[in-house]
Design goal:
285 residues; alpha/beta; Rossmann fold; N-(1-d-carboxylethyl)-l-norvaline Dehydrogenase, domain 2; 12 helices; 8 strands; globular; binds nicotinamide-adenine-dinucleotide
Amino acid sequence: MSDSLRVAVIGAGTMGNGIAQTFAMHGHSVNLVDLNEEALERGMSTIRRSLERFVRKEKLSAEQSEEILGRIQPTTDLAGAVGEVRIAVEAVFEREDVKRGIFEQLDKHAPSGAILASNTSSIPITRLAAATGRPEKVIGMHFMNPVPIMKLVEVIRGNRTSDETLAETVRIAEGLGKTVGVARDYAGFVSNRVLMPMINEAAFCLYEGIATREDIDTIMKLGMNHPMGPLTLADFVGIDVVVEILDILYRDFGDPKFRACPLLRKMVEAGKLGRKTGEGFYAYD
Ligand SMILES: NC(=O)c1ccc[n+]([C@@H]2O[C@H](COP(=O)([O-])OP(=O)(O)OC[C@H]3O[C@@H](n4cnc5c(N)ncnc54)[C@H](O)[C@@H]3O)[C@@H](O)[C@H]2O)c1
């Protein structure tokens, strides 16, 4: 295990609670910040349920699970939470104004040497860094969902991120048992720039009647040895999120290859957003 650090995670939602859990599972002390007690309680109960699964699978003892929970301190006080941290990881809503506000506060209250990381999927790290007086310390740490399970952290180097910050962030991520891929700060980084056009093209295949949804998924799953087909994956990600990211890629690169399939837009209009609404390309209970 790497040295034990004091860290803060801002946002206790899907990603934030997974990030907090992962740091705590590797011996770090975590201050987990959200706007209110309900959000914190939801985040903490997700962590408890996840740890129970590790215990059931005998990957952790009940005692270890308690110790891990004991290392996570939920709080609504951001300023107090970041006062002594080595690194703060921001995982709030994917809205630039909200994230910039958080980065201003992190810059004000975190120690001057602390790394300020964002888990954003699509907002330029360089723009978040510009909200601080320490752009060399700002970096992207793009964890994958579910964080405790998924091996990858895509580390995004902003225009002014220093070599030292990059090296330390990679070291911290590897200390969490993750494998790092480094990308430069352009829309979609690598992960979404490659994934979203694949999902989009799968949607076009369905839209143009090239194949059924099942055949599209079967061909891509078995033919490319992917764990699931692109339409199944799109339902996991959320069709609205897919369209949002395609729109960002289209806007930033001005390249028609990123135009969202009309079928995806129609699904968003109809509220067929995937698993979270019970229906996307497939129906769910
Ligand atoms: N969900 C995914 O699969 C996924 C994968 C990779 C990256 N991301 C990125 O991670 C980030 C978080 O996504 P999510 O899915 O966890 O969102 P989410 O909606 O589940 O959670 C966001 C949390 O942030 C909290 N929050 C909002 N404003 C806040 C503030 N000012 N201070 C403190 N807390 C605040 C909310 O109360 C909520 O609990 C986004 O940037 C998203 O793009 C998501």
